[in-house]
Design brief:
alpha+beta, ten-stranded antiparallel beta sheet, 10 strands, 32% helix
């Protein structure tokens, strides 16, 4: 684990995220810690000790899923309010943790589990405010197997149990919002510098061509943020299915300049509470699936 203290947004960072994704409470609550925590996460992955847990190159690794949980809403509101003078910025800290690796379900490649946790501390205790569990995939396979069920595998099982299906549903015009918004190339560049995720596939059209894409690919987090803000402004009934805890599955690319359509998805069982799918252009498969679930 790596912890970073004095971890609060500046007015400039908050203003930039609002400019890129909107000003909705849902977007800021879930994405502001995620965006600012990316540098903490990258520092962790570059740490020499991480090499013992991930004994292979992360080149080509993909971010598959994220699970966001708001653990203390009142404290999170203080974190977002950069004008609040009652709570010093030094009270907040971000911890990035690498939990381990697990073989992917098909036996090919490896899934890597990491967490970002936002804390607020006082003289007596430290309180968890927000947590994101990230699952990455690497085409590299662990040598010699992983032995008994690892902590990483148990965490994957936990979230699959509460948010299981991420189904590819067909579009239904009566519950979709067409041409909701566009992720522009200029916005993708700004989001990359804000978050520290300057992967060339996001930042360079020629590099995106080398990876088989027709254009630069927008950051999944930016598309999710735009969706949450759009729903809060235009379709509150759709947003009502996204609660304090939800999962995001990155199923396919979101090309810069493409029009995104939103579709409401029904609940899949008693624990999952429904969600929203994002479709890019005329694709019949969603690029991003969002599912609310009941946090344990």
């Amino acid at each position: 684990s790596i912890s970073v203290g004095n971890f609060s947004p500046s007015r400039d960072e908050l203003s930039e995220l609002r400019s890129l994704c909107g000003s909705s409470n849902a977007m800021l609550s879930h994405l502001l810690p995620h965006v600012l925590g990316q540098r903490c996460l990258l520092t962790l992955l570059a740490h020499p000790r991480s090499k013992k847990i991930i004994p292979f190159s992360l080149l080509g690794a993909l971010h598959l899923r994220s699970y966001f949980e708001i653990l203390d809403n009142s404290r999170l509101r203080r974190y977002i309010d950069v004008d609040a003078s009652a709570v010093p910025a030094s009270n907040f800290a971000m911890t990035a943790s690498l939990w381990g690796t697990s073989r992917s379900p098909n036996g090919k490649g490896t899934e890597i589990v990491l967490t970002l946790t936002l804390h607020e501390s006082d003289d007596k205790s430290s309180n968890e405010v927000w947590r994101e569990t990230l699952i990455w995939y690497s085409p590299n396979t662990l040598r010699g197997g992983e032995g008994p069920r690892s902590t990483a595998a148990q965490m994957i099982d936990k979230f699959n149990a509460v948010c299981p299906d991420f189904k590819n549903l067909d579009k239904k015009d009566d519950i979709s919002v067409s041409n909701a918004f566009v992720c522009k190339s200029s916005e993708t560049t700004r989001f990359g510098w804000l978050s520290g995720d300057v992967n060339p596939i996001h930042m360079s059209t020629p590099m995106a061509w080398l990876f088989g894409q027709r254009s630069r690919i927008a950051h999944g987090a930016m598309a999710v943020g735009k969706a949450l803000s759009y729903l809060e402004r235009q379709s509150p009934l759709l947003l009502s299915s996204i609660h304090q805890s939800f999962g995001v599955a990155l199923k396919g690319p979101v090309p810069c300049g493409s029009s995104l359509t939103l579709q409401l998805s029904p609940p899949c069982d008693t624990d999952a509470l429904g969600g929203v799918d994002l479709y890019s252009n005329m694709n019949t498969r969603p690029s991003i699936c969002m599912r609310a679930f009941k946090s344990s």
